[in-house]
Amino acid sequence: MTLTQGTIAQALIVPARGKAKRRPVVIYTPTNLIPTQHKVGVVGISGSYYPDSDCIPLPWRADGRVPTRLTRQCAIVLDLIDEIEKESLEPTGGYVSDAVLVELVERLKKRRVSFP
Asked: How are beta strands 21-27 and 7-13 bridged, if at all?
């Protein structure tokens, strides 16, 4: 599967606080830059989050029959940001909608995140 901006993949994330954990992530690096980069920017998805925190809720269904392929209530948590080697990403077949991707990119720009 080709990696694109908005793809959901599994990756080992090292948060600013806490221990490294394998979790779903959303790729935020623009699609045209992915082939030229060794690492891509990702933001973690978590089922443990506070609705008033800096997060973006994602569509889910118990049977996974939604574009995200998530099977429980989850959200993109903007504090779970990292750069991951492309080879270590395992695409899930899921992706976020264009509306979610636009919101994610705008929030990252407000945080002054660089786009690798």
From this structure: antiparallel
Enumerate domains of the chain plus CATH numbers: 7-110 (2.30.30.110)
The rounded distance, in Å, linking the Cα atoms of 105 and 90 is 22
Q: What is the pTM of this model?
A: 0.91
Tens-level pLDDT at each residue, the chain (116 residues):
689 999 999 999 987 777 888 999 999 999 999 999 999 999 999 988 777 778 999 999 999 999 999 999 999 999 899 999 999 999 999 999 999 999 999 999 998 887 76
88 by DSSP, 3-state: which? helix
Q: How far is CA 84 from the centre of its chain?
A: 11
Strands (E), the chain: 7-13, 21-27, 39-46, 55-58, 74-85, 90-95
Cα distances (angstroms) measured from residue 115 to each of 10, 39, 83: 20, 11, 10
